[in-house]
Design brief:
The structure is a homodimer. By secondary structure, chain A is α+β, with helices and mostly antiparallel strands. Chain A folds into two domains: 4-152, Creatinase/prolidase N-terminal domain (Creatine Amidinohydrolase, Chain A, domain 1, 3-Layer(aba) Sandwich); 154-395, Alpha-Beta Complex (Creatine Amidinohydrolase), CATH 3.90.230.10. In chain A, 32% of the residues lie in helices and 19% in strands. Chain A has helices spanning 4-19, 39-42, 71-75, 91-101, 122-131, 145-153, 157-180, 187-200, 270-289, 296-309, and strands at 23-28, 52-57, 62-67, 82-86, 106-108, 141-143, 204-205, 214-217, 238-243, 245-247, 250-251, 254-260, 354-357, 360-363, 367-370, 373-377, 382-385, 393-395. In chain A, strands 4-3-2-1-5-6 form a six-stranded mixed beta sheet, sandwiched between helices. Chain A has a four-stranded mixed beta sheet with strand order 8-9-12-18, with helices on one face. A three-stranded antiparallel beta sheet of chain A has the order 7-10-11, with helices on one face. In chain A, helix 5 links the parallel strand 5 and strand 6 (141-143). The termini of chain A are far apart. At the A-B interface, helix 3 and helix 5 of A face helix 3 and helix 5 of B.
């Protein structure tokens, strides 16, 4: 059976040819302490301790240079055509292997824009440069961000099914939660209920469990990445949840909202319903705009303008990010041209990518409305993974 | 109650004064994907998503600049005197906060030598330099490796007790294992037995579970960081194990050896016993040499020379590393002057550090003998954590 690592390494060779990169060099050490997020895709979970170099060439040659003690583990990945091991220093075999490849353009694991392509530490960069002194290769280095974002972003059919399965579990835990919550429960108690479900089902959390789920009830709860509080659900509250599971190494990331009816109410107040409808419409506009070839910024504009056009303040974060092995899976994003996003809002959307769409707004006096859906980019548009929330859930 | 983070941040202010560093700046982003190993010590496990700066000054001021959504989580660390949050870019508030501190020497989270002080990615380094253009601060940057290795290395009494507890659990799992193994079991079965014990006790593994324990039976097993194999224990085999648990966030890392008596044997063959005695003697020499003020290289020399002096080939790794939150806890090491170790073998040993001592040698025809002990450096020498192995365990 072909493993995910073999599948992704094979995929990377096609991407190197497409991007006209001769050699892709991933340089790491002590990955148990400072990991490179590309390793699960091109090496697996074994870990690399001493300075190690994974080299994939556009002609299909693949060399792993690792410490002596990890020669056997490297061999077992079945992803490299040659394993070289060393004892005292990687310096000479790194240089001689580069001479053997003699690449004109070498892409390395560093990026200002894409954190998931930025696994090379600055200390390791300085070491690499010192090893390459006196060779022509130091001047041939470029960022591998294009290779990595394509490799990570273009999900294989097997990867899409894994994400779909994580989405299904996440929605099923939401269903169970909505059946078991009631006014008087604290945000912490809602979180505990969902944590128990994650544990019972043998799943993981898509991000740090202390903030997964995020739970916000009513107008006074601090929205963000903080942990749930002692605030209690009351009639007349919007309850907002942000949650996702990790299953078999892949993540979901979904937000849902519930309205708790106040006494004598049979439906949500008009301004709550209007806020909800605005967010749903914004998501529809995002889905309509999202297809191969557009930039993330265009999709962000189309979504954000629905919220601001309805008179709400703009949300102070990007409309969506990619999703995969990590909840924030790097690469291009559906975002505005803000400095902290670097170039990533200008990258092109490609078929096979999976994005979140997550506009939000505050309804004063009631709480925060944020809905987040997960979508797969197809050749012509998008497919929602799991049933999107289009009706406000009303709870007694 | 003072938390570990508050305790370590307070400790860091003393270290900044000792090292004459005005400001310690830790610059990170998306730590769920690319973490900085210093964060558990100075921030906790909440994670930082947007570009964030943790700044600790030798005069005691401590500022965290974080994304808007993480303002509340940052406040809850109770470790920073001021929390600043931003929406679109950290650029201007980073620069204005530096102006407020106006430090002459700024230590940042990068190091060629110490991987655990090298959390700054090269992409983030380039971003930092671009933010500091036009200010005097770019030229005032130095590596924080001295600060970080002191902070991580000098264990507080509470930290030493946590490591001691991890050692005790590790030795107790060894005891249980030795009572339940027998010839005919495969390396994989021995590993499963130990994994079950880790799980039953609600503990974690000190490194990747696939290689924790490492299990080597007999002369043909590949020694190193690989996973256990289908090789079966036979009479006349040395069984070598390398294992440690993580408990309450702290690790142990211990190797043990067992000899399986062949038919009619009542003791180990002379060359097995001689190999064992050599390794035990090497550990005793390491313990005798290890005290505050010596370099790691001196200790490595004293240990290595026992093995080579007895006529065995030298082991191709360092004699020992520091131990703490991670099995390989960074900082100075007990190692030879090999290029891959950078400067770390020349750093001074300090009281409060915890080291492994782990010489090893191969006995042809029987297997690998490696013993690894964990020791605390005291003011005058060392204290063994847990009872060291000084007798060869004989098994029928």
């Amino acid at each position: 059976m072909t493993t995910l690592v073999e599948e992704k390494v094979a995929q990377s060779i096609g991407i190197l040819n497409e991007k006209e990169i001769d050699l892709w060099l991933t340089f790491v050490r002590e990955t148990a302490a400072v990991g490179d997020p590309v390793l699960p895709l091109i090496y697996g979970d074994a870990g690399l301790t001493w300075q190690s170099a994974l080299m994939i060439s556009r002609d299909g040659r693949r060399v792993a240079i690792v410490g002596r003690l990890e020669e056997e583990a490297a061999r077992r990945t079945d992803a490299y055509t040659e394993i070289i091991s060393y004892d005292e220093s990687i310096h000479s075999c790194l240089v001689s292997t580069l001479e053997w490849f003699n690449p004109k353009k070498i892409a390395i694991n560093t990026s200002k824009n894409d954190v998931l392509a930025d696994g090379l530490s600055h200390g390791m960069y300085e070491i690499l440069i010192s090893y390459l002194e006196g060779t022509p290769y130091g001047e041939r280095l470029v960022s591998a961000e294009g290779v990595m974002s394509a490799l990570r972003g273009r999900k294989t059919p097997a990867e899409v099914e894994l994400i779909r399965s994580a989405v299904d579990e996440t929605l099923d835990i939401y269903r169970h939660t909505f059946e078991n919550i009631h006014p008087g429960m604290s945000e912490i108690e809602v979180s505990q209920l969902m944590h128990e479900q994650v544990k019972e089902r043998g799943l993981g959390h898509a991000w740090a469990p202390s903030g997964c789920p995020a739970v916000n009830t009513g107008p006074d709860s601090p929205v963000g990445h903080g942990a749930p509080t002692e605030l209690k659900i009351e009639p007349g509250h919007i309850l907002h949840l942000d949650f996702g599971v990790r299953k078999d190494g892949y993540c979901a990331d979904i937000q849902r909202v519930v309205y708790f009816l106040a006494q004598d109410e049979t439906k949500a107040p008009d301004n709550v319903q209007r806020g909800f409808d605005t967010v749903v419409e914004a998501i529809q506009q995002a889905a309509a705009a999202l297809r191969p070839g557009v930039s993330g910024k265009e999709v962000d504009d189309a979504t954000r303008s629905v919220v601001t056009g309805a008179g709400y303040p703009e949300y102070k974060y990007g409309t969506g990010h990619q999703l995969g092995r990590l909840a924030h899976d790097g690469g291009g994003m559906l975002g505005p041209a803000w400095e902290r996003y670097g170039d990533t809002p200008f990258w092109q959307v490609e078929a096979g990518q999976v994005y979140t769409i997550e506009p939000g707004l505050m309804v004063p006096g009631y709480g925060y409305i944020g809905i987040e859906e997960n979508v797969l980019v197809t050749k012509t548009g998008v497919e929602f993974l799991g049933k999107p929330q289009t009706e406000l859930i009303l709870h007694l």
